[in-house]
Amino acid sequence: MKAKTGIVFEGGAMRGLFSAGVQDVLLENNIKFDGAIGVSAGAAFGVNYKSHQVGRVLRYNVRYARDPRLSSWQSWLKTGDLYGADFCYRELPEELDIFDAETFAKDPMEFWCVATDIQTGDPVYHKLINGKTADLQWIRASSSIPFFARPVKIGNRYYWDGGVSDSIPLEFFEKRGYNRNLVVLTQPKEYRKVNKHTYLFLKAILHKYPQVLKRLKTRTQDYNAVLDKIAKQERSKQIFVIRPPHTLNIGTMEKDPRELTRVYEIGRKTMVENMSSLKVFLKQS
């Protein structure tokens, strides 16, 4: 039986420019997957894989890096969203740097994103259909960090960032039958998350969402456990992992186009160096 291939994109705000470089090299080499899944920036940037838009992620981030509508404290104070919702999920993809929804819909690869239900704290995995308004709302939900963004209403439920409940959704994809996966991380191999003593602050501002707080309280341990599982599967060659060779040192709202380009180019270089090995891995049955 032919292996079912998947690609898993971690989030990480502007560290996602690393993943954008990776995916552009994959597209240029015509590497196809049966499915993809992304969390937060991994979803917002990763959808361009299915729409075949090489260079788009870097292009619009560089062009609008200093535009407060893209991301700014001004936007947060005015709208409640650090990343401007109307600009990022309507004006930009529909008018300024058009997202190719037609190609997205036609490509047979599945694309999933992960959001967190704010009432249950559970991850919700949503399969995107056509790259249009409803899908863009799911991507927005997947990328909406608690406190720094308003909860996103879809149907009769509200959602926040998927990274709260499932930062690297490899297990979900494995359960769906994806048995040969490329995992694209945005932190180096030695990285492990450490507690930052912010829980009491979060508890004070997110007290209306006890299940989200429960997730945030154990997020460090949960995230590190996933990294340990990934390391084990990588050693046994069950998965293929692409990650930065060192800490990327880029801000959440990076405004310098040179820094955005630097991180993107690290992603490209890393993928080029690993392309031959990846091709061998994907051909295995």
From TrEMBL:
InterPro entries to which the protein is assigned, alphabetical: Acyl_Trfase/lysoPLipase, DUF6363, NTE, PNPLA_dom, YjjU-like
Chain span(s) of sequence motif GXSXG: 38-42
GO molecular function, one term: hydrolase activity
Domain PNPLA: 7-174
Keyword Hydrolase included in the entry's annotation: yes
Origin: domain of life: Bacteria
GO aspect biological process, one term: lipid catabolic process
Alphabetical list of Pfam families matching this protein: DUF6363, Patatin
Keywords assigned by UniProt, alphabetized: Hydrolase, Lipid degradation, Lipid metabolism
Motif (DGA/G): 161-163
Record: active site: 40, 161
Protein's recorded name: Alpha-beta hydrolase superfamily esterase
